[in-house]
Structure formats: C-alpha cells, structure tokens
Design a protein that fits this description.
The protein has 279 residues and is α+β, with helices and mostly antiparallel strands. It is 31% helix and 36% strand. The chain contains seven helices and 18 strands.
Length: 279
C-alpha cells in the first residue's frame, strides 16, 4: 500500500487546483474547448488508474534481507506473511503477480505464510522447493555441513527435491544432507511440542539444549556473539549438552560448559577456546 501511495503522489495532479482551472477556462473558450479539456482530464485519470493497477498487480520488487552477528529481525511482507530472521542469515524476496518466491541463501528463518493457492508461497534453496499449504515452518541451513532442515510448526508443507516429493505436517522435521542436490532422501523425524518451543527459543535470545553437541551449540552462539568460541579438540566437540543459555553471553556459556565437561577455557586475541588442552 505504501508503494501504491507513493505512485499516487507522483502521477496525480493537484486535484483542488486543476478542476477549477478547467471550469474557468471552459467559460472563456466556449463549450467545444470545455469538452476537449474534460476529455484530456478524464484520460489522465484513466492513465493514473492503470498505473496504480499495475503497481498493485505486480507487488513488491525483489528485496534482500540480511542480518549480522547478534541481529534478529521480524518482518511483515507485502502479502500478509511474516518472517523471523535469525542472526547471520540472508533471504531474497521475489514476489510477482503469479508467485511468491523466497530464495534462501543462509542461516535460519521462521516463515508464517499467508496461504493463497492461486499464488503459492515458496522457499527455494539448493535444489529444494518448499511450498506452503497454510502453515508456519522454519528453514535452517547448517553453516558447517550445508545440510538443510525444515521444521513444520503449524499446518503443512510440500517439499520437492531431486530425490522426490515429501509432505510434512505440524510436528514433523525433514533433514536433507549436504548432498541433497545429488538425490539423497531426507531423514524424517517427529518433534514433540515442547521440543518445537525449545527449537524456536532463538527468537527470544535463548539457546535451549537437550542433547545437542558442543560443536552445534558453539555454532549457534557464534551467530549471536561478537566474542567467537572455538572447540579445542574433535572429541570434545561431539559431547552432548543440556541446559538453557543466553545467546549473547559467549563467555558465560564457555565457563559453564567447561565446568560441566571438566575441561579448561583459554581466552585468546580472537576469542575463547573451550578445551584447549585434552579433556
């Protein structure tokens, strides 16, 4: 609507001035001139209406949304849908008269799509197309492995991938390995409501862990903290963690994890190392 209003301001004549001028000129020039002027005025109004119709039909042009470390954004889209974008994420919106396409480049995004079967809402990445069937769903692309995960929190989605079609409903998750474009089938799991809430805790700046590895937890913390963490050895990185942590407190997370795992923490010029020595 804002875009349409801007167009109106550009094309519309100053109505309160134009009409009196036409009438006055008509009195001076006679009936024939008045008819011509009204015809020209009417043509201008039709052109304005056509311009506004074109703007409303085409919708929003391509737009890119990219968040930085520690930045989480919630946005309302022109079609009535909304997105919550996690830190270090990027999407490109490409809406037109027929389709509503989102090109997912990196990170993690929660979509709440306004359903319209005549103008489908689609998220595209790495040869995968996720189509809304009236739903809310989260898409994650793992920075380390490039695996893609789709979690449906409400409604249903259809996923078309090189390996075939997958239909997901609320409480289901599909994880596509890095080689999804090569035709590998996704891993499908059910997710309990409590685990869905835990998975979405990033929107409130929290990291809720229930058996996730230290490596994956560090990757999440590093999306939200300028103070970057590293794991000192591979064996430690596979340790499972439990608990609730603040995303913006990398130092506190490192100390708590080190104490829980019986290892050390070392502060260096470029960040903090967890388990610098052997466990």
């Amino acid at each position: 609507m804002l875009r349409a209003q801007a167009t109106l301001a550009v094309f519309a004549p100053p109505w309160h001035e134009s009409v009196p001028d036409i009438e006055k000129q008509a009195e001076d020039d006679g009936p024939a001139s008045a008819w011509k002027r009204r015809a020209i005025f009417g043509g201008g109004a039709l052109a304005l209406a056509a311009s506004l119709a074109a703007v409303l039909l085409i919708g929003s042009p391509k737009e890119t949304y990219e968040t930085q470390i520690g930045e989480v954004r919630s946005l309302a889209l022109s079609d009535g849908s909304s997105v919550s974008i996690d830190a270090k994420s990027r999407i490109e919106i490409d809406f037109d008269a027929k389709n509503r396409d989102v090109h997912f480049r990196s990170g993690k995004v929660l979509f709440r799509a306004a359903h319209n079967a005549q103008r489908p809402f689609r998220v595209m990445l790495d040869g995968i197309v996720i189509t809304d069937i009236g739903t809310a769903f989260q898409v994650t692309k793992d920075d380390r492995t490039q695996a893609v995960e789709v979690l449906v929190t409400e409604g249903a989605v259809r996923i078309d991938a090189p390996a075939g079609r997958v239909d997901l409903v609320a409480g289901q998750r599909a994880r596509f390995p890095q080689a999804a474009s090569g035709g590998l089938r996704p891993e499908l799991t059910r997710v309990a409501p409590a685990d869905i809430e835990r998975t979405l805790a990033w929107k409130d700046g929290q990291l809720e862990l229930n058996g996730e590895t230290l490596d994956s937890a560090v990757a999440e913390i590093n999306r939200h903290s300028r103070l970057q963490l590293r794991v000192g050895n591979a064996a430690l990185g596979s340790e499972s963690l439990y608990g609730s942590f603040r995303m913006d407190d990398a130092a506190g997370f490192a100390r708590a994890v080190a104490a829980g795992l019986g290892t050390d923490v070392r502060t260096e010029a470029d960040g903090i190392v967890i388990g610098a020595g052997k466990k």
